[in-house]
């Protein structure tokens, strides 16, 4: 059946029609009985369907419109045969075949940051995802439903991460504002007059107009040699540190917010005293402190400290980088975790990540394996009971997986890990 639709004809497909395609599956739970195709492209607001919300429909005028914002909004939801041709849903450029066999992904819940922006409570880590691996991983992750991506200048993959995001925007899978991109100022750029240049260079690598969240990677600066020397060492292999005060670095980062280059700023690997010093001396509150956090180092005290100050805690190395040969970390391979996995019909990784979400932190597991990217995301259909959270708490030893050995032992005044939290 062809329906006259503004200036173009749209084929109208009904649920249950003897179609060779299966996009109807996408809409089975959405209340839609019909949907439209335009030049073999779906023209429904997929994200809304993914969220299983009533779809905000928009008046369709011409096929040349590409932005929702250009279209008048209505609250009409098309249902069954009463679908009104004037209120066709609109946008996405995903091709029909892209969607054929994919079910709508669930998105992660978001936490409201102290500046009003929202951050998904699970992100994709990308350390060591390079040489195309990062690009492929991020594209797959976005398809799966990840909207929070974590990278850094140090990871040397910002160009491919940015490309993956731009490609997904071009495909119409997401809009820029759907993505929460986190990257970090590297330690060689702590001199205040290097900060803006470093950030602009990272934006150029990413190919984006702004960064959602820019973190100071570490409170300790390194000596600047050149842009490529990320770990400056002397002839004896000793890492060359700088004594730039992280307060001065942070104040230079505040300017980036004012310039509109970044939306939020935060810190990483800061202890509670360093965080308090930032709060006491700076204008813009950090929105997060990204630190190592897993069942072995659950950061309960630092999380509470942050929470009292309306700062989130992002959990890096949440899975403890599992090593099957060594059966480490213990919390991943333990029978206790396996028993919980059996109980909830989940995997150990899912139990660990859900535990972290349940204790109020934001894990960013890294994977470049498609199955594990999916596995790590599939944690929003269950919750651990308080008793089972207590079981996971027993793995806490306080031991660090990422001890920053090259700095440790240099007695630097800003070394963060010499106090309890
Ligand atoms: N701010 C900082 O100083 C800092 C420091 C470290 C990390 N980070 C950030 O945090 C992210 C995560 O931390 P991380 O990479 O250190 O450690 P992680 O996420 O705990 O572990 C990553 C490792 O686990 C494997 N893996 C992923 N999912 C798995 C699963 N379901 N089952 C078994 N193995 C799995 C990955 O291999 P595959 O890829 O093969 O799946 C990878 O080798 C980093 O990528 C980075 O973005 C920040």
Characterization of this structure:
This protein is α/β, with parallel strands linked by helices. It has one domain (110-411): NADP-dependent oxidoreductase domain (TIM Barrel), CATH 3.20.20. The chain has 14 helices and 16 strands. The strands form four sheets. An eight-stranded parallel β-sheet has the order 9-10-11-12-13-14-15-16. α5 links the parallel β10 and β11. NADP nicotinamide-adenine-dinucleotide phosphate binds next to α13. Residues 124-393 form the NADP-dependent oxidoreductase domain. One of its GO terms (molecular function) is oxidoreductase activity. This is 1,5-anhydro-D-fructose reductase isoform X3. Pfam families: Aldo_ket_red.
How would you summarize what this structure contains?
The protein has 421 residues and is of the alpha/beta class.
Low-confidence stretches: 1-101
Helix content estimate: 25-40%
**What is the total domain count?**
1
The N- to C-terminal Cα distance equals: 66 Å
Adjacency order of strands in the biggest sheet:
9-10-11-12-13-14-15-16
Which superfamily, in CATH terms, is the homologous superfamily? NADP-dependent oxidoreductase domain
* Number of E-state strands: 16
Task: Could you tell me the CATH topology label.
Answer: TIM Barrel
DSSP strand (E) fraction?
A: 15-25%
Secondary structure tally, helices: 14
Order of helices and strands: EEHEEHEEHEEEHEHEHEHEHEHEHHHEHH
* Overall mean pLDDT: 82
User: What small molecules accompany the polymer chains?
Assistant: NADP nicotinamide-adenine-dinucleotide phosphate
Pfam family, one: Aldo_ket_red
Domain NADP-dependent oxidoreductase: 124-393
Protein name: 1,5-anhydro-D-fructose reductase isoform X3
InterPro entries: AKR, AKR2E, Aldo/ket_reductase_CS, NAD(P)_OxRdtase_dom_sf, NADP_OxRdtase_dom
């Amino acid at each position: 059946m062809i329906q006259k639709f503004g200036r173009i004809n749209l084929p109208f497909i009904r649920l249950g029609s003897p179609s060779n395609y299966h996009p109807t599956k996408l809409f089975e739970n959405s209340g839609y009985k019909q949907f439209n195709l335009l030049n073999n492209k779906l023209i429904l607001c997929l994200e809304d369907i993914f969220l299983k919300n009533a779809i905000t429909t928009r008046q369709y005028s011409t096929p040349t419109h590409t932005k929702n914002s250009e279209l008048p909004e209505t609250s009409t939801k098309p249902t069954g045969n009463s679908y009104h041709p004037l209120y066709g849903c609109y946008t996405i450029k995903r091709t029909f075949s892209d969607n054929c066999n994919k079910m709508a992904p669930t998105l992660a819940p978001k936490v409201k940051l102290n500046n009003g922006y929202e951050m998904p409570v699970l992100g994709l880590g990308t350390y060591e995802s390079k040489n195309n691996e990062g690009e492929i991983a991020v594209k797959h992750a976005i398809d799966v439903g990840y909207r929070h991506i974590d990278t850094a200048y140090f990871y040397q993959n910002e160009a491919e991460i940015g490309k993956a995001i731009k490609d997904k925007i071009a495909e119409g899978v997401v809009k820029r504002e759907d993505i929460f991109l986190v990257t970090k100022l590297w330690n060689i750029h702590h001199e205040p007059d290097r900060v803006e240049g470093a950030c602009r260079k990272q934006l150029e690598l990413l190919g984006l107009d702004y960064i959602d969240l820019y973190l100071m990677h570490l409170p300790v600066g390194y000596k600047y040699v050149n842009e490529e020397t990320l770990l400056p060492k002397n002839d004896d292999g000793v890492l060359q540190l700088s004594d730039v005060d992280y307060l001065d670095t942070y104040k230079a980062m505040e300017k980036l917010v004012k310039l509109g280059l970044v939306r939020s700023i935060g810190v990483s690997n800061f202890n509670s005293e360093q965080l308090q010093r930032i709060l006491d001396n700076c204008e813009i509150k950090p929105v997060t402190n990204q630190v190592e956090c897993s069942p072995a180092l659950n950061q309960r005290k630092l999380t509470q400290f942050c929470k009292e100050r309306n700062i989130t805690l992002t959990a890096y190395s949440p899975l403890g980088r599992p090593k099957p040969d060594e059966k480490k970390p213990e919390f991943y391979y333990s029978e206790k975790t396996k028993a919980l996995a059996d109980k909830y019909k989940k995997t150990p990784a899912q139990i660990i990540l859900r535990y972290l979400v349940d204790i109020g932190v934001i894990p960013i597991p890294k994977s470049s394996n498609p199955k594990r990217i999916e596995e790590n995301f599939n944690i929003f259909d269950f919750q651990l009971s308080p008793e089972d959270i207590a079981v996971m708490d027993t793995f806490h030893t306080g031991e660090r997986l990422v001890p920053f050995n090259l700095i440790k032992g240099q007695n630097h005044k800003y070394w963060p890990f010499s106090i309890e939290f």
